[in-house]
Amino acid sequence: MSATDTPARPPLDARRFSRLLPSPWSLGAVLIAATVVAPILAVVWIAFFPSDNIWPHLISTTLPRYLQSTAILMASVGALAAVVGTGAAWMVCRYDFPGRRWLEWLLLLPLAIPAYLGAYALVDFLEYAGPVQTLLRATFGWTSARDYWFPEVRSMGAAVLVLGAALYPYVYLLARAAFREQSGSAEEVAQSLGAGAWGRFFRVGLPLARPAIAAGVAIVMMESVNDFGTVDYFAVQTLTTGIFSVWLQSGNAGGAAQIACVVLVLVILLVTLEKSSRRRMRFFNLSSRHRPVLRRRLTGGAGWLAMGLCAVPFLAGFLLPAGVILGHALDNAALWSDPALIAAMRNTLTVGGIAALITVAGGIFLVYGVRLSGRQIPRLLLPITTIGYAAPGAVLGIGILIPLAGVDHAMADLVERLTGWDIGLVLTGSAFALVLAYCVRFFAIAQGAADAAMGRVSPNLALAARSLGRSQGQTLGAVYYPLIRASVASALLLVFVDCVKELPATLLLRPFNFETLATRVHEQASLENIGGAAPPAILVILVGLCAVGLLARANR
């Protein structure tokens, strides 16, 4: 062939056939999406085809009580978080008072403390032998509980207070961003029409921020449904505790799956209501020059009152539980060298680290594969993969453990027939199921971070790399990764922190004699040994503080 000859092209039919075949990136993206969605589908399948159908028994006995308690908990925690989060966000965005700069970031710190740690600390602080009641008896000369009345600590009201104090930052963070984006022109117009401070809040600020507040409240309510440690410690029977009771105590996986489907319906309803509210309410800034709202200076008693009101959520959500737990950790310094604590920390770092790496790598592969394929099916699967984050850990536990147990037994029987060697339970007898649950539960974090980061990269850079002969994989490593590296690191940290704090899925899926920091805290607190729970709790809080610091840095 001469130098002027061009290489022969493949026949037209061959090129058409190659275009019809999916690329490895598309196949990988579909496989990852199917893996994330499979546990949810497994729960639905087990619920509709149980080996022992106890649905009529559940409806006539425990299910109404579980559903009522869950509805009350969701509504109460959502309302409390909405009031506290929105009020605090309005104060720090619209007014200047002593300590505002510090409180603007301190109000995020309760995110570092899981709600179940707040529950243990509150009971220890307010119980009969705690410092509050001890001080009351010493001050007024009371000798026993018959001499005075004190609110019941382990109750629905206490659970609402703990969950509200732990979860209000979700509303606060979104509401603060919405109030910051509002234009000062609307405030000035409202003031010129005679609207006072309350009028400007209810007629201008709140309606414009309502979609963001609704999104935050929806997240709070979903986290309330997912919670197990708090409601179990306060003896509040919800749908999540019902899953544990029916499955672990009654031994009925089908009934647990049926309760899990009720939880899924509630979660889907919350997500649908939140999205529909945002579609119905859209506001646009019509000004070509956006002017931020100027903060009003509060002096004297008004300024100190504003500081006190904003400090209460921080004190209740972070300082009180952290102080109580830190006090116990210092009093039990010898427990820091406990081999069980060291083993739990090692297990947590190993399982959480592996899950974070797999989850973020899968999220990058999925987003990149969808962008390359251009096909409809992968694009439809992309938003569906976020359902794992909305599904409670107890629901995922059912959807993962039962199918994996069947596969595990079948694989062990097959190997034993072929080789005569009993390999045991490879999947459910190890941390594999736990890692899979973490990946499914927090895949939305990695996928969202990867999608947002890749969306900021110009397509021309990838096209230039391809024109220079780089393959699709080389383009991902040489072009995309250097530009999205910071987002990838943030996603790794956030996924790892959530893995450390996750309790329901860990309790259901951990192997025998396998403790993590979260399960060790729960085990020791269940035995009323707050001193033994304090060291692992401090480690969980320190990990959470890393994520809060990253979040604060990203939202400056």
Task: State the main characteristics.
single chain, 556 residues, mainly alpha, MetI-like fold, two-stranded parallel ribbon, 2 strands, 76% helix
Question: Percent range for helical residues?
Answer: over 70%
The CA-CA distance between the termini, in Å, is: 63 Å
Structural class: mainly alpha
Radius of gyration: 27 Å
Shape: globular
Instruction: Enumerate how many helices there are, as a single number.
Output: 25
CATH class of the largest domain: Mainly Alpha
Give the low-confidence spans. none
Fourth-level CATH superfamily of the largest domain = MetI-like
Might you state the CATH topology name of the largest domain?
Answer: MetI-like fold
Sequence of strands across the biggest β-sheet = 1-2
What is the CATH-assigned architecture of the largest domain?
Orthogonal Bundle
Number of domains: 2
If you average the pLDDT, what whole number results? 84
Strand count: 2
Q: Which strand-content bin applies to the residues?
A: under 5%
Order of helices and strands: HHHHEHHHHHHHHHEHHHHHHHHHHHH
Q: Report on the biggest sheet.
A: 2 strands, parallel
Describe this structure in words.
By secondary structure, this protein is mostly helical. The chain has two domains: 66-232 and 300-323, MetI-like (MetI-like fold, Orthogonal Bundle); 332-556, MetI-like fold (Orthogonal Bundle). Helices cover 76% and strands 1% of the residues. The protein contains 25 helices and two strands. It has helices at residues 12-20, 24-48, 55-60, 63-94, 100-106, 115-126, 131-140, 156-181, 184-192, 197-226, 229-233, 239-249, 253-280, 300-331, 339-373, 376-384, 387-390, 393-419, 432-441, 443-455, 459-467, 472-501, 504-509, 517-526, 530-554; strands at 95-96, 296-297. A two-stranded parallel ribbon has the order 1-2. The radius of gyration is 27 Å and the shape is globular. The protein starts with 11 loop residues before the first helix and ends with a helix. The mean pLDDT is 84.
